[in-house]
Amino acid sequence: TVTRTGSIGGTFSSTAGLVIDATTGAIDLAVSTPGTYLVTLTIPAANSCAEFKATASVTITPAVSATIAYSATPYCTNVGTATVTRTGSTGGTFSSTTGLSIDATTGAINLATSTAGTYVVTYTIAAANGCAEFKATANVTIQGVLAAPTISSNQSTSVCAGTEVLLFTNCPQGSTVLWSNDSTASVLALNANNPSLQTVTVKCQQTGFCESTSSAPYSVEWISIFSLTPINVGGGQSSTKVVNDKSAWASQSITPDAGPTLEYSTQANPTIYYSENMNKTAPRYWTIHVETCNLGTGGSLTFNMSCTDETGFDRSYNTHENNAPYFMFANREGFTEIYAQNHPAFGFYESDGNGGNVYDTGLPKGFYKLGIRYWDQKGQGSIFPTTRQPQGNVLAYQEFWFRIQSKDGVGKGAAREAAENALSPWRFADAKGLNPLAFAEVAPNPVSSVMHLKVNDTKGQKVNVSLLDASGRMLLQRAFVPETNQHQEEFNVSEIANGMYSLRVHTAEKQATLKVVKVK
Q: Which of helix, strand or coil describes residue 232?
């Protein structure tokens, strides 16, 4: 409104943008454009008086307006600074209640020094230029951070393969547990059937709090149920030491040349032994010493080793050892004397037709699978490991894989060259000496379903086969004429009862009796 003194009458006017009542001089601020205007009151000439004008300057200031927001709310006390998003008028100040550390000029909140809670932040623009004081508000929530949890376990950090390990954490009651393997179980169960290492961390989540930081890493290692030490027996059927001490054999231990140790071997990643290196040259008279992981010595071990040599010939070595220290081919007085696979009593014997033992060739170069079972009882039926039968229940089983080869590669050396030069029926175990192929071999042994019989050097000859039980009763009988010098026959023995059997194989010129163990 205008304040006027003096003569009455006249009209009010101004320039465009100012909406003014010509009679009263009242200005409509809501529809006027902000700016500075000159308002003129004009009284026209009358009664010999000239026209009269009076002027006044009027300034209209834009209305104050602003909005503020903390769009990332809720915040955590450990994330640094919360910044404000402001629109509209500038020049105001930010404030809030006690507990919130806020910069009055920028509105930035120091989260680390603020107390957890919900606050109202006020942005105030003071009254000025005819405009009243202006305030805008926004809510902001700051949450406390859960403490980093810790992990504990019902087991040690090193356990036997196959052992279940339970992991616990101290997340607050009612919170959600977030394990690094994506499990949300309150108690995490871990297990591994093979040697391996697993490492996990954990975090906690709870309503009204920010997620905790991760715990320190927790690692569990599963070690092999069976710890294997291959030993080069050396001079033939057995070897002795003057002391009963495993360390006496240290210089004859067989160490890997490539790949993992036996405990970590797999079919795809076997342990590699180079046939040119120490303790690995032919003839290889080896045994394997086994120590168990927390199984004790009250039970017994079954060794089932199969080999496909570099000429494609299959061979198996199956024994059962009752007493610790456990050796694949037995021992005498602990570590005083150990036996090799060609020992006629504790290893294997099969005539080569020339007064020798087929197994005197030693272990051939090839690919090996070794399965070891721990039984809760001692084996029975024989004092010899090659004919002893297991009893009781299997408490543990593990497979090991290795290859014996030339350092120049698989198939290098005399074994492959002999096969390629068609020197059959002789097979090379290595570059040292020749020995004839066994007349007949059976695999797998023990057998559960299908038994494979391989006969050699019988092309065009009638081969008679019979399977007899311990009483001499014939259970199977077959005759065939091989068309090649290496012939294989299959026999379904799945319906035959478990036990020890004799497999008799003969031609007009050769004969062999093989021991066969039938299992489930």
A: strand
DSSP 419: H
For residue 270, is the peptide bond before it cis, meaning its omega torsion is within 30 degrees of 0? no
Q: Provide the H-helix boundaries in 62-132.
A: none
Residue among 161, 237, 89, 61 nearest 400 (CA): 161
Residue type (1 letter), 271: T
Contacting residues for 293 by C-beta, under 8 A, at least 6 apart: 160, 161, 223, 224, 225, 226, 227
Supply the DSSP symbol for 183. -
Q: In terms of Cα–Cα distance, which of 504, 502, 498, 494 is closest to 518?
A: 498
Q: Answer whether residue 414 shows pLDDT above 60.
A: no
Give the pLDDT confidence score for residue 428 in this predicted structure.
36
Given a contact cutoff of 8 angstroms between Cβ atoms, the answer to whether 229 and 248 are in contact is: no
Distance CA 230, CA 328 (A): 10
pLDDT tens across 244-277, in order? 999 999 999 999 999 999 999 999 999 999 999 9
pLDDT at 484 over 90: no
495 φ/ψ angles, rounded to the nearest 5 degrees: -90, -5
Q: Rounded distance, CA 239 to CA 347, Å?
A: 13
Q: What is the 3-state secondary structure (H, E, C) of 4-56?
A: CCCCCCCEEECCCCCCECCCCCCECCCCCCCEEEEEEEEECCECCECCEEEEE
Amino acid at 487: H
- Report d(CA 393, CA 368) in Å as an integer: 26
The string of pLDDT tens digits covering residues 187-209 is: 999 998 888 899 999 999 988 88
pTM of the full structure: 0.54
> Which residues, other chains included, contact 303 with Cβ-Cβ below 8 Å and sequence gap of 6+?
288, 317, 318, 319, 320, 321, 328, 370, 371, 372
Contacts for 92-101: CB closer than 8 Å, 24+ residues apart: 92/66, 92/123, 92/124, 92/125, 92/126, 92/134, 92/136, 93/123, 93/124, 94/68, 94/121, 94/122, 94/123, 95/121, 95/122, 95/124, 96/120, 96/121, 96/122, 96/140, 100/140, 100/142
Alpha-carbon span 99 to 138, nearest angstrom: 16
Give me 357's structure tokens: 């033992």
Round to whole Å and give the CA distance between 246 and 254: 14
CB 84 within 8 A of CB 68: yes
Q: 402 and 272 in contact (C-beta within 8 Å)?
A: yes
Residue 436: the pLDDT is 47
